[in-house]
Amino acid sequence: MKNNLFRKLIHTTAPAATILMRIMVGGIFLAEGIKKFFIFDALGKGQFTGMDTPLSVGMLIFLAILEMDCGIFILCGFLTRIASAVLIIDNLAAMVMANLPILLKDGFWSMAYGARLDFSLLLGLVFLLIVGAGPWSIDADTMRRKAT
Fold it and tell me: What is the residue range of 27's domain?
């Protein structure tokens, strides 16, 4: 049963070009996580200033590590569907926290402009969740090894 679920999670019939989506999505999340550490006051703790969010420094560090780890997993094509699902939750929460106040204050078009990257990343993550990592990935290599 567990083995069957694992196979379903890593199985992929996606084309090789899926690597381009993995590079874009994984690279952005890896970079965002790294930036939260190196520019912590502006992009870590400072990112939430004025949002009325009770996020602690520990939670921000956890989110930075989560984004870096899942970004690396997606870049490598390792447990891509699981990493995508985790980042979908992270991205939806970030979209609500960052864009809802803009929607309420400045209206739809200001919010839509500010959310364009978040929305693009969300669609990329959903794509990877549906199709998997593609043939140039650790997931596909694991499937090939289990088949032999």
Answer: 18-135
Q: Residue 141: inside a domain, yes or no? A: no
What is the C-alpha to C-alpha distance for residues 64 and 139, in angstroms, rounded to an integer?
A: 24
Distance CA 85, CA 26 (A): 13
Note the pLDDT tens digit of each residue in 25-56.
Answer: 999 999 999 998 787 665 545 555 554 555 67
Domain contains 9: no
Q: Is the residue at 88 inside a domain?
A: yes
Q: For 110-122, what is the HEC assignment?
A: HHHHHCHHHHHHH
Contact between 11 and 141 (Cβ < 8 Å): no
User: Is the Cβ–Cβ distance between 86 and 70 less than 8 Å?
Assistant: yes
pTM of the model: 0.85
What total of structural domains would you count in the chain? 1
Q: At what angle do helices 138-147 and 2-10 cross, to 10 degrees?
A: 130
Q: Does residue 12 belong to any structural domain of this protein?
A: no
Helices assigned H by DSSP within the chain: 2-10, 18-38, 57-76, 80-106, 108-114, 116-131, 138-147
